[in-house]
Task: structure prediction
Amino acid sequence: MTQNPVIVRFAPSPTGFLHIGNARPALFNALFALRHGGQFVLRLDDTDRERSEERFAEAIRRDIAWLGIRPDRFERQSDRFAAYEAAAEALKRSGRLYPAYETSDELDRRRKRQMARGLPPIYDRAALRLTDAEKAAFEAEGRQPHWRFRLDDAAPHVQWDDLVRGPESVDIGSQSDPVLIRGDGTFLYTLPSVVDDIDFGVTHIIRGDDHVTNTGVQIQLFQALGGVVPSFGHINLLTTASGEGLSKRTGALSLASLNEAGYEPMAVASLAVLIGTSAPVEPAADLEALSRLVDLSMISKGPAKFDPSDLDGLNARLIHGLPFEAVADRLGALGISGSAAFWEAVKGNLVRLQDAADWWRVVTGPISPTPIAPEEVAFIAAAEASLPEEPFDAGTWKLWTDRLKAETGRKGKALFLPLRRALTGLDHGPELAALLPLIGRSNTMDRLAAQRLVPEA
Result:
């Protein structure tokens, strides 16, 4: 028997920019497809015509491409209304979709009365008891019905084996028949989503655990439409370090802003996936490698807390491991014409690749000399006098400092820090043994001379 290929989907609504919390389910779906040789469908859930915007749709496609996700199929729900109408008609014919005429105020008053009587505030299916004459009277008043999906009372407990959480069960008997179509004829999320999953052959639905309670209704809807029920996996949600949820409408930690800030996409992807799992948080080289580091069984049931400072550390580790060939074009785009020697000298001091531009300015100059104490003037003069002739190479720094140590008796910080300040204008940075050949003898002499002329205030 041939096993059906794995098909997963990521279905964002184009109503805002994706943030790192949205990246988590997108990545888990993409990694699951990679791990199992399956397909990844990007579907825009854009049935909300008032809030959906093309600029957000374009940003979604751009952002997931930045993460390295290449969809095998792209769909828009706004192109598929005929399929949803056909499904709705089929549900109406089978008696599973029925019209209800209550207004929001009437439903609210009814819920309050039920709660006052100690009853659960669920819909009492009053609409099923309406006569044709009563329905006609409502419509004569100008009321347009909304349409509810009649849940199956014969199967009040819907069970499934969750790919992340293990055995799960939802008590359908404690839920109201959900509204699938609004009074204005527009569809809510549930029906289009299930119809698409059936039509596209989705085999696994991997999403946030805030959807666990929706799963029972959706399983019954799959069954009512004659579709194959996919496997479900509910991953823990990503929150801020303080436990707050992320919102794409506020732009919190948007993928676009992380990209603009210079973070590596695989640092973002690695952190978005690996936090909240039992796997160590380490940078992966690409999505294929990341897919081998984690699977759904390793995901915790508790929230996954994202701290931006963790991203800095992970990004730095990723940068430090990049060879020159992988960054040469990007360095050129920053105006850096340095060779592999420059990259090897500075990469260990970078958090983001764009930080290399600061060190390129240090190498090429000019730099601003730092104030110097009177007792340091003689030392800088001695440094000028003992500077080796060209060519400079990896051994020049040791040769120079050994001479100075012998002439001045200085060692340690007293020897090295004044030289670092004179050559770079800073108290920290890459190894000077690697920087000195890049700075060159002429620049070094100019900087030493300039340093002597800036007295301490």
